[in-house]
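Worked example 3 (structure in, sequence out).
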């Protein structure tokens, strides 16, 4: 029986999928003197994008926040939830890391409001881990995705870790640039938007499959894409930290409370053994009432038009305008929209012509700005909208570009020839 148990343990150990993440510099035994790694580098740069008054309001002991970045790997231990997956159609497949980021954000806010600043610092660090992990292309790739699992996961992160062991990095500092705007975003929205860009690519960020297939630090495009991914993650994280400052109202609660630790056991149906997860919650107090506004309503997107037409054919405008109608049963306004354009009939409906990612706007129209459209080709277009809480379903349409008018060109040539002949005849008669 003992041998059988040992064999079972060995099987589970070798069959468990390998998991990696941005490094924390190793396991720290002293929370007030943590080892420094990539997660710390990204968090500290994001914090320094905040005004000093905001930074000092939400962070009271920086080493504890840096130590908190280790918790998802070494303390909480839920390494199977450090990913966000999209399908090739652009639909969200698995939002695990986004959910965990929002949960840690909510805990951090609760601790701040109850004056438990040490735990708040640690939860902020943990939250940042779940967000910035998504700057790694392998964290948006997996066996269950259309892209498959990333091949160069650990080697990629090891390279970056060896160059982010302190706050200054000769390799990556030049990429980290404050975008000049802090408006505030939820941890969940930041996570799924970051994952979307890392998956499909945008600007200097190459898509996940390109990064995995073209792995190589001597490749300037690859290296610049890594730097751009890190910069995007840092600016996104700064937005979440700014939102935390906005949501936190200092002075409304003066009575600290003692966190209550509960232990739950979750049994998986896979070969992974039973895991015991310890979670910490903060009880409510009689001096503070926190209201979280959520929307159960799902918006609707309809009436998708291309240059004012439904599924037009023989379109001659190669930069058409797309428009749509937005409605919400609870009258929540549109806060974002997303559009995708691709060649009709491509495998899995890939948006291979234009896929700019979600846009923060209340506009209900946009002008095509993707790859050059070709005459005689049919394309699909799909749009969805967001009310600040939920995405609508995609609304789908097609448009066909006019073919090359060879017949009319032939007629034109014939007319020119006839005119030339007539002119020649008249000239000879005049002589």
């Amino acid at each position: 029986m003992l041998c059988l148990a040992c064999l079972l343990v060995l099987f589970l150990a070798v069959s468990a999928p390998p998991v990696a993440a941005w490094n924390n510099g190793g396991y720290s035994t002293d929370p007030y003197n943590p080892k420094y790694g990539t997660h710390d580098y990204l968090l500290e740069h994001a914090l320094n994008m905040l005004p000093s008054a905001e930074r000092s309001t939400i962070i009271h002991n920086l080493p504890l926040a840096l130590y908190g970045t280790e918790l998802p790997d070494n303390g909480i231990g839920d390494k199977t939830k450090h990913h966000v997956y999209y399908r090739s159609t652009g639909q969200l497949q698995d939002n695990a890391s986004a959910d965990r980021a929002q949960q840690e954000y909510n805990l951090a806010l609760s601790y701040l409001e109850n004056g438990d600043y040490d735990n708040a610092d640690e939860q902020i660090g943990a939250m940042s881990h779940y967000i910035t992990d998504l700057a790694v292309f392998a964290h948006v790739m997996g066996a269950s995705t259309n892209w498959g699992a990333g091949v160069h996961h650990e080697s990629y992160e090891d390279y970056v870790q060896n160059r982010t062991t302190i706050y200054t990095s000769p390799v990556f500092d030049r990429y980290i640039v404050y975008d000049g705007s802090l408006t505030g975003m939820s941890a969940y929205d930041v996570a799924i938007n970051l994952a979307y860009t890392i998956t499909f690519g945008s600007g200097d960020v190459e898509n996940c499959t390109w990064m995995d297939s073209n792995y190589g630090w001597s490749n300037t495009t690859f290296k610049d894409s890594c730097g751009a991914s890190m910069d995007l993650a840092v600016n996104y994280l700064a937005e979440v930290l700014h939102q935390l400052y906005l949501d936190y109202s200092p002075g409304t609660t003066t009575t600290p409370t003692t966190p209550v630790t509960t232990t739950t056991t979750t049994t998986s149906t896979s070969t992974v053994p039973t895991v015991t997860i310890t979670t910490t919650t903060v009880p409510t107090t009689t001096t503070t009432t926190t209201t979280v506004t959520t929307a159960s309503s799902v918006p609707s997107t309809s009436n998708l038009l291309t240059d004012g037409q439904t599924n037009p054919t023989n379109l001659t405008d190669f930069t058409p305008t797309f428009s749509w109608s937005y409605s919400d049963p609870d009258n929540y306004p549109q806060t974002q929209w997303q559009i995708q354009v691709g060649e009709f009939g491509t495998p899995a409906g890939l948006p291979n012509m234009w896929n700019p990612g979600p846009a923060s706007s209340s506009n209900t129209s946009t002008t095509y700005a993707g790859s050059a459209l070709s005459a005689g080709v049919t394309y699909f277009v799909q749009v969805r909208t967001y009310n600040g809480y939920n995405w609508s379903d995609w609304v789908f349409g097609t448009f066909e570009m006019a073919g090359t008018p060879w017949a009319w060109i032939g007629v034109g040539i014939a007319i020119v020839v006839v005119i030339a002949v007539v002119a020649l005849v008249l000239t000879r008669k005049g002589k």
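Notes: Confidence is low (pLDDT under 50) at residues 1-20, 251-295. Residues 220-247 form the longest helix (28 residues).
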